[in-house]
Design a protein that fits this description.
- The chain is mainly α.
- The protein has 8 helices and no strands.
- It starts with a helix and ends with a helix.
Length: 245
Protein backbone atom coordinates (compact mmCIF):
# COMPACT_ATOMS: atom_id res chain seq x y z
CA UNK A 1 0.00 0.00 0.00
CA UNK A 2 1.45 3.31 -1.08
CA UNK A 3 1.42 6.52 0.91
CA UNK A 4 -1.24 7.98 -1.35
CA UNK A 5 -3.51 4.99 -0.69
CA UNK A 6 -2.97 5.34 3.06
CA UNK A 7 -3.85 9.02 2.94
CA UNK A 8 -6.90 8.19 0.88
CA UNK A 9 -8.15 5.68 3.43
CA UNK A 10 -7.46 8.12 6.24
CA UNK A 11 -9.56 10.71 4.47
CA UNK A 12 -12.38 8.22 3.88
CA UNK A 13 -12.23 6.74 7.39
CA UNK A 14 -12.22 10.12 9.04
CA UNK A 15 -12.48 10.30 12.80
CA UNK A 16 -13.05 6.55 13.26
CA UNK A 17 -9.87 5.48 11.52
CA UNK A 18 -7.87 8.21 13.25
CA UNK A 19 -9.17 6.95 16.63
CA UNK A 20 -8.15 3.39 15.76
CA UNK A 21 -4.65 4.46 14.78
CA UNK A 22 -4.34 6.49 17.97
CA UNK A 23 -5.41 3.40 19.97
CA UNK A 24 -2.71 1.38 18.23
CA UNK A 25 -0.10 3.95 19.20
CA UNK A 26 -1.32 3.95 22.82
CA UNK A 27 -1.14 0.15 22.98
CA UNK A 28 2.41 0.20 21.63
CA UNK A 29 3.51 2.87 24.12
CA UNK A 30 2.00 0.96 27.06
CA UNK A 31 3.70 -2.25 25.94
CA UNK A 32 7.09 -0.55 25.65
CA UNK A 33 6.67 1.13 29.06
CA UNK A 34 5.79 -2.19 30.74
CA UNK A 35 8.69 -3.95 29.01
CA UNK A 36 11.11 -1.37 30.37
CA UNK A 37 9.53 -1.48 33.86
CA UNK A 38 9.68 -5.29 34.04
CA UNK A 39 13.11 -5.67 32.46
CA UNK A 40 15.28 -7.78 34.76
CA UNK A 41 12.84 -7.65 37.68
CA UNK A 42 12.67 -11.42 38.01
CA UNK A 43 16.43 -11.94 38.10
CA UNK A 44 17.09 -9.05 40.51
CA UNK A 45 14.32 -10.22 42.82
CA UNK A 46 15.79 -13.70 42.95
CA UNK A 47 19.24 -12.31 43.69
CA UNK A 48 17.96 -10.16 46.55
CA UNK A 49 15.89 -13.02 47.93
CA UNK A 50 18.92 -15.31 48.03
CA UNK A 51 21.02 -12.61 49.73
CA UNK A 52 18.42 -11.83 52.39
CA UNK A 53 17.76 -15.48 53.13
CA UNK A 54 21.48 -16.19 53.58
CA UNK A 55 21.80 -13.32 56.06
CA UNK A 56 18.72 -14.47 57.97
CA UNK A 57 19.99 -18.03 58.15
CA UNK A 58 23.16 -16.68 59.74
CA UNK A 59 21.07 -14.58 62.12
CA UNK A 60 22.39 -11.29 60.73
CA UNK A 61 19.21 -9.22 60.65
CA UNK A 62 21.05 -5.92 60.17
CA UNK A 63 22.86 -7.10 57.04
CA UNK A 64 19.61 -8.49 55.61
CA UNK A 65 17.82 -5.19 56.09
CA UNK A 66 20.74 -3.20 54.68
CA UNK A 67 20.75 -5.31 51.51
CA UNK A 68 17.00 -4.82 51.20
CA UNK A 69 17.18 -1.04 51.57
CA UNK A 70 19.83 -0.81 48.85
CA UNK A 71 17.66 -2.66 46.31
CA UNK A 72 14.97 -1.15 44.10
CA UNK A 73 13.23 -4.40 43.19
CA UNK A 74 9.55 -5.06 44.01
CA UNK A 75 10.49 -7.83 46.45
CA UNK A 76 12.50 -5.28 48.44
CA UNK A 77 9.26 -3.46 49.30
CA UNK A 78 7.81 -6.76 50.52
CA UNK A 79 10.82 -7.51 52.71
CA UNK A 80 10.89 -3.97 54.13
CA UNK A 81 7.23 -4.25 55.13
CA UNK A 82 8.10 -7.44 57.02
CA UNK A 83 11.14 -5.88 58.69
CA UNK A 84 9.16 -2.84 59.84
CA UNK A 85 6.41 -5.01 61.29
CA UNK A 86 8.99 -7.24 62.97
CA UNK A 87 10.69 -4.25 64.59
CA UNK A 88 7.40 -2.69 65.74
CA UNK A 89 6.50 -5.91 67.53
CA UNK A 90 10.02 -6.06 69.02
CA UNK A 91 10.80 -9.43 67.54
CA UNK A 92 7.47 -11.03 68.42
CA UNK A 93 6.81 -11.77 64.72
CA UNK A 94 3.09 -10.99 65.17
CA UNK A 95 1.45 -9.90 61.92
CA UNK A 96 4.59 -10.21 59.78
CA UNK A 97 2.91 -12.58 57.34
CA UNK A 98 -0.11 -10.28 57.01
CA UNK A 99 2.13 -7.25 56.41
CA UNK A 100 4.10 -9.17 53.77
CA UNK A 101 0.92 -10.29 52.03
CA UNK A 102 -0.56 -6.77 51.99
CA UNK A 103 2.58 -5.32 50.48
CA UNK A 104 2.73 -8.14 47.92
CA UNK A 105 -0.82 -7.25 46.82
CA UNK A 106 0.17 -3.60 46.43
CA UNK A 107 3.25 -4.60 44.45
CA UNK A 108 1.03 -6.65 42.16
CA UNK A 109 -1.18 -3.64 41.51
CA UNK A 110 1.85 -1.51 40.66
CA UNK A 111 3.23 -4.14 38.31
CA UNK A 112 -0.12 -4.36 36.49
CA UNK A 113 -0.32 -0.60 36.06
CA UNK A 114 -1.71 0.56 32.67
CA UNK A 115 -2.53 -2.98 31.55
CA UNK A 116 -6.21 -2.05 31.73
CA UNK A 117 -5.58 0.18 28.74
CA UNK A 118 -4.53 -2.83 26.67
CA UNK A 119 -7.62 -4.77 27.74
CA UNK A 120 -9.89 -1.82 26.97
CA UNK A 121 -8.36 -1.22 23.54
CA UNK A 122 -8.53 -4.92 22.71
CA UNK A 123 -12.21 -5.17 23.58
CA UNK A 124 -13.49 -1.89 22.12
CA UNK A 125 -11.59 -1.32 18.87
CA UNK A 126 -13.47 -4.02 16.87
CA UNK A 127 -16.73 -2.26 17.70
CA UNK A 128 -15.24 1.13 16.83
CA UNK A 129 -14.16 -0.28 13.48
CA UNK A 130 -17.58 -1.79 12.91
CA UNK A 131 -19.16 1.56 13.69
CA UNK A 132 -16.91 3.19 11.10
CA UNK A 133 -17.91 0.59 8.53
CA UNK A 134 -21.61 1.05 9.18
CA UNK A 135 -21.23 4.81 8.97
CA UNK A 136 -19.34 4.45 5.68
CA UNK A 137 -21.98 2.18 4.19
CA UNK A 138 -24.72 4.59 5.21
CA UNK A 139 -22.78 7.42 3.58
CA UNK A 140 -22.39 5.39 0.38
CA UNK A 141 -26.11 4.70 0.11
CA UNK A 142 -26.85 8.33 0.88
CA UNK A 143 -24.55 9.42 -1.94
CA UNK A 144 -26.23 6.91 -4.21
CA UNK A 145 -29.67 8.29 -3.36
CA UNK A 146 -28.56 11.87 -3.98
CA UNK A 147 -27.08 10.82 -7.31
CA UNK A 148 -30.33 9.22 -8.37
CA UNK A 149 -32.36 12.23 -7.29
CA UNK A 150 -30.12 14.52 -9.31
CA UNK A 151 -30.76 12.46 -12.43
CA UNK A 152 -27.64 10.33 -12.32
CA UNK A 153 -27.52 6.73 -13.43
CA UNK A 154 -26.52 5.51 -9.96
CA UNK A 155 -25.44 1.93 -10.40
CA UNK A 156 -23.76 -0.50 -8.08
CA UNK A 157 -20.16 0.39 -8.88
CA UNK A 158 -20.15 3.54 -6.78
CA UNK A 159 -21.83 1.73 -3.90
CA UNK A 160 -19.33 -1.13 -4.01
CA UNK A 161 -16.41 1.27 -3.94
CA UNK A 162 -17.85 3.07 -0.93
CA UNK A 163 -18.53 -0.20 0.91
CA UNK A 164 -15.04 -1.54 0.22
CA UNK A 165 -13.54 1.67 1.57
CA UNK A 166 -15.80 1.54 4.63
CA UNK A 167 -14.71 -2.04 5.40
CA UNK A 168 -11.19 -0.76 5.99
CA UNK A 169 -12.33 0.55 9.39
CA UNK A 170 -13.41 -2.95 10.47
CA UNK A 171 -10.15 -4.46 9.28
CA UNK A 172 -8.07 -1.87 11.12
CA UNK A 173 -10.19 -2.29 14.27
CA UNK A 174 -9.59 -6.05 14.26
CA UNK A 175 -5.85 -5.60 13.72
CA UNK A 176 -5.56 -3.11 16.60
CA UNK A 177 -7.57 -5.46 18.85
CA UNK A 178 -5.28 -8.37 18.01
CA UNK A 179 -2.23 -6.22 18.74
CA UNK A 180 -3.55 -5.03 22.11
CA UNK A 181 -4.75 -8.45 23.26
CA UNK A 182 -1.45 -10.06 22.28
CA UNK A 183 0.40 -7.54 24.46
CA UNK A 184 -2.12 -7.96 27.28
CA UNK A 185 -1.94 -11.76 27.35
CA UNK A 186 1.85 -11.70 27.24
CA UNK A 187 2.11 -9.39 30.25
CA UNK A 188 -0.59 -11.27 32.15
CA UNK A 189 1.29 -14.55 31.76
CA UNK A 190 4.62 -12.95 32.66
CA UNK A 191 3.23 -11.18 35.72
CA UNK A 192 1.43 -14.31 36.91
CA UNK A 193 4.73 -16.19 37.08
CA UNK A 194 6.47 -13.24 38.72
CA UNK A 195 3.80 -12.78 41.39
CA UNK A 196 3.91 -16.48 42.26
CA UNK A 197 7.66 -16.20 42.81
CA UNK A 198 7.18 -13.07 44.93
CA UNK A 199 4.63 -14.91 47.04
CA UNK A 200 7.02 -17.81 47.60
CA UNK A 201 9.88 -15.49 48.51
CA UNK A 202 7.64 -13.56 50.90
CA UNK A 203 6.45 -16.77 52.59
CA UNK A 204 10.01 -18.02 53.02
CA UNK A 205 11.07 -14.64 54.40
CA UNK A 206 8.27 -14.70 57.00
CA UNK A 207 9.18 -18.28 57.98
CA UNK A 208 12.82 -17.36 58.51
CA UNK A 209 11.84 -14.44 60.74
CA UNK A 210 9.54 -16.71 62.73
CA UNK A 211 12.29 -19.32 63.13
CA UNK A 212 14.65 -16.60 64.32
CA UNK A 213 12.08 -15.50 66.91
CA UNK A 214 11.60 -19.06 68.16
CA UNK A 215 15.35 -19.60 68.36
CA UNK A 216 15.76 -16.42 70.40
CA UNK A 217 12.96 -17.47 72.76
CA UNK A 218 14.43 -20.94 73.30
CA UNK A 219 17.98 -19.71 73.92
CA UNK A 220 19.07 -20.35 77.56
CA UNK A 221 19.17 -17.27 79.73
CA UNK A 222 22.52 -16.40 81.31
CA UNK A 223 22.90 -17.58 84.94
CA UNK A 224 24.83 -15.90 87.77
CA UNK A 225 28.09 -17.71 88.53
CA UNK A 226 28.30 -19.20 92.05
CA UNK A 227 30.52 -17.55 94.61
CA UNK A 228 34.11 -18.70 94.54
CA UNK A 229 35.04 -21.33 97.10
CA UNK A 230 38.28 -19.53 97.75
CA UNK A 231 36.42 -16.84 99.74
CA UNK A 232 35.25 -19.40 102.32
CA UNK A 233 38.60 -20.13 103.96
CA UNK A 234 39.23 -16.43 104.23
CA UNK A 235 35.93 -16.01 106.11
CA UNK A 236 36.69 -18.92 108.38
CA UNK A 237 40.19 -17.61 108.98
CA UNK A 238 38.76 -14.22 109.82
CA UNK A 239 36.36 -15.82 112.31
CA UNK A 240 39.12 -17.80 113.90
CA UNK A 241 41.15 -14.67 114.38
CA UNK A 242 38.30 -12.91 116.12
CA UNK A 243 37.76 -15.92 118.37
CA UNK A 244 41.33 -15.98 119.50
CA UNK A 245 41.05 -12.36 120.47
Amino acid sequence: MSLSDLLHYLRIGGFTLALLLFSSVVATVVAIERLIALWGVRERSRSLGDTVHKHLLRGDLTAARTATERSNTPVADIFLAGFERYERTRGACDGVEAAVERERAQVGLRLRRNLWLLATIGSLTPFVGLFGTVAGIMRSFKDLGLDVQSGGTGGTSAVMIGISEALVATAVGILVAVQAMAFYNYFQARLSRLLVELRLMGDEFAELLRERTLASAQAPSPTVAPASSEARPLTEASGATHGDG
